[in-house]
Design a protein that fits this description.
Elements lengths: L9 E5 L3 H12 L3 E5 L7 H6 L1 E6 L3 E4 L2 E3 L2 H5 L4 E4 L6 H8 L8 E4 L6 H12 L6 E5 L4 E7 L2 E7 L3 E6 L4 H8 L6 E3 L3 H6 L3 H4 L1 H6 L1 H7 L12 H21 L6 H9 L6 H6 L16 H4 L1 H15 L5 H14 L3 H4 L13 H10 L3 E2 L2 E2 L2
Helix pairs in contact: 4-5, 15-16
Length: about 375
């Protein structure tokens, strides 16, 4: 466990996209030592040469980066906290890269984990490098709404009031919050990764408006305000049905979740009599255009890594999710890929064969307790 009374925290940020550049710039701007990893070094070459990332928007300034590298080993060496900010579709790949080099005492934070991300990530590390005292942490969502303007320059469009986080196991959440609180006070404790995973609002707000606006996206190349123009009353009706199914599965797991409209309220102070009205009151959403094409992470990330695990957990617990299943099927037709087959499922999270009580025990304590004691 890190002793923050002795020295300053060191960070590794994994991913040089929108979220990665935003997090790296912010932490470095605060004066922390930050190593930035990206798989393709040419995509962060400018940052490597100039040595900094510039922020504009609701946060402005420069963050000077210690190392920019495509070596995961060099990036995480000496880091106390590893901030993973890659699409959830890359979690499995990144976990496999990190596992041989991770050190006991490090914290790995998924920003965000989507649905079941921390469970899958830890399962991979345990299989490759068992015995390491690594603490997984899952954030419900990304701290910032941000967009890369050009390489080495990122716009911070808005900053969330609160981001729920949980460690895996949850008995270590307070420990992590105690370390990170003076840096990211928006990180607040929740019960377990079941809360962060099933409060995955990206599962609701990303794939559904994209799929239901597929014609408009293709004809305009995404030239409309995604959250404002793209979510009409009828689209909102389907979103809220998916939201209801998500909460049904979460409730069976004992997870504490909020509805999409409640989340908009406490995250952005955005309220309204309807979902459309609440979304229009999120200032940061007025700057976000729709995807330029249907080849977007809103489908290829959020369907297999967000909706599929909700549906698969629902099936595992014998809870029907017909609207979510329909969205998965349509997404599979659009991209010509069986997303249910390739998506994150209960087996990938290391939970297959566990009873409901055993799942709850595992996420809290890291152990599986059944009648007669510890079984795994």
């Amino acid at each position: 466990m890190f002793d923050n009374s002795k020295r300053q925290l060191n960070f590794a940020v994994i991913g040089g996209g929108h979220g990665g550049q935003g997090i790296a710039a912010y932490l470095a701007h605060l004066g922390y030592k930050v190593n930035l990893y990206n798989r393709t070094i040419t995509k962060v070459e400018k940052i490597q040469k100039q040595g900094f990332i510039e922020m504009e928007g609701c946060i402005s300034g420069r963050g000077y980066i210690n190392i920019v590298t495509n070596s995961i080993e060099h990036a995480i060496n000496g880091a106390d906290i590893i901030m993973v900010a890659v699409p959830a579709s890359a979690h499995k790949y990144i976990a496999g890269l990190i596992a041989p080099h991770v050190a006991s005492g490090q914290y790995i934070v998924l920003n965000p984990g989507r649905t079941g991300g921390a469970l899958e990530f830890k399962n991979i590390i345990q299989n490759i490098n068992p015995g390491k005292d690594v603490c997984m942490v899952e954030a419900q969502t990304l701290l910032f709404a941000c967009r890369v303007i050009e390489e080495g320059k990122v716009a911070i469009l808005s900053r969330k009031n609160e981001v729920k986080v949980a460690a895996l196991p949850a008995v270590r959440t307070k420990e992590f919050i105690g370390i990170i609180n003076h840096i990211i006070p928006e990180f607040v404790e929740t019960n377990s990764v079941l809360d962060t995973s099933f409060n995955n609002i990206g599962a609701i707000l990303h794939p559904i408006p994209t799929i239901l606006n597929c014609g408009r996206i293709e004809s305009t190349k995404g030239d409309f305000l995604y959250y404002i123009d793209g979510i009409t009353p009828t689209v909102a009706k389907i979103i809220e049905e998916v939201d209801y199914e998500r909460m049904q599965v979460a409730d069976a797991l004992g997870a504490e979740v909020v509805s999409l409209r409640e989340w908009l309220g406490y995250t952005y102070d955005a309220y309204g009599d309807t979902l459309c009205e609440a979304l229009s009151n999120v200032k940061g959403y007025w700057g976000i255009k729709a995807p330029a094409s249907l080849d977007t992470r809103y489908i290829f990330e959020d369907v297999p890594q967000s909706l599929v695990p909700i549906a698969d957990m629902g099936q595992y617990l014998e809870i029907e999710t017909p609207t979510i299943n329909s969205i998965i099927q349509i997404a599979s037709v659009i991209h010509g890929e069986d997303y249910y087959k390739s998506g994150r499922k209960v087996v990938d999270m290391g939970l297959l064969g566990l009873s409901l009580d055993e799942i709850k025990s595992y996420v809290i304590s890291g152990e599986v307790y059944a009648t007669g004691g510890v079984v795994a």
